Amino acid sequence: MANLTVSGHFVLAALSGAEHQRLDTDTMLRRAGISPELIRSPGARVSSTQFTRLMQVIWKDMADEFMGMGPRRCRPGTFATMCALILEHSTLENALERAEHFSRLFDRTACMGLERDQDRASLVLHLDLPVHDPHFFLHESILVIWHRLFSWLIGQAISLDEARFDYPAPPHADEYRHIFHCPLTFDADRTELVFDARFLSAPIIRDRPEMRRFLKTSPADLLARPDEGNSYTGRIRALIGRDFSRALPDFEWIASELHVSPQTLRRRLRQENTSFQEIKDLLRRDLAIYHLGRGERSINEIAHLVGFTEPSTFHRAFKKWTGMTPGAWRDGDASAASGPTAAP
């Protein structure tokens, strides 16, 4: 499967703390292999690999896992220490409780707290002021990291029933549909992720060698590479594959492979805030960006590979997706990769 891509909004939002401290963010971008000029274009996107590199650059340069946005400085190694502690527990519920307890050892908390009400459970965001988070990136990061970390620990995605936010819908709220795969509520009384309490009894299945491998790229990888394996969106992406030059499977075949009726699958996709057509369009977009960044194929070849019989149609579609032509995208991406401070 081609790499998923990340909206340019999240790239710039991740740098807001560094900008607030007047650090050289253009150099940070180039070290991650990202063109500072390209990323500021409307519709810009980067590969998940580039975004992972950027997060690692930010945490290293700032020596702060809160990226200059949190209520306090979070020293490098804090996340890894928490992971080592929670690995000692047998169930998800115990691990979540230990993670919250660990986070509350520090002055001015930034963590998730577990609450349970019969058959529903909630991870509630506790974020003490003051924070510098104009784009809500720190809020989003804590929710995403905790959700995906604990999903990884139990070896299955924790399906969310609802994601609630105690702030108005931001300009990039549409991106939330592809992050949380559940109904969204803004202007709520608190920020929380709601899920079925049955997950709390799930056993922790990871061991220390797995955790050491996991921590080599995490938590940056958790933000950049969502685990969609348990969502219908992710399962459909896997069934479609990455070769759009051949006839794609139709919706009825997809539904039969997932052992549901077409009506049920449409309902499930609505619950995940997406559709079959949107899944195909976003796959085409991400696949095109992936191949343009590699530079191994001509633009006409890429057009055919992502399912366009006419290059002109591909050019129009790509500009609609990203605001740029494929040629301009490739030129901007190449300039970042060849720069003197680009990441290896």
TrEMBL record:
Keywords: DNA-binding, Transcription, Transcription regulation. SUPFAM superfamilies: Homeodomain-like. It holds the Pfam family Arabinose_bd. The keyword Transcription applies. Gene3D superfamilies: Homeodomain-like. Residues 234-332 form the HTH araC/xylS-type domain. It comes from the Bacteria. InterPro entries: AraC-type_N, Homeodomain-like_sf, HTH_AraC, Tscrpt_reg_AraC-type_HTH. This is AraC family transcriptional regulator. It comes from Marinobacter halodurans.
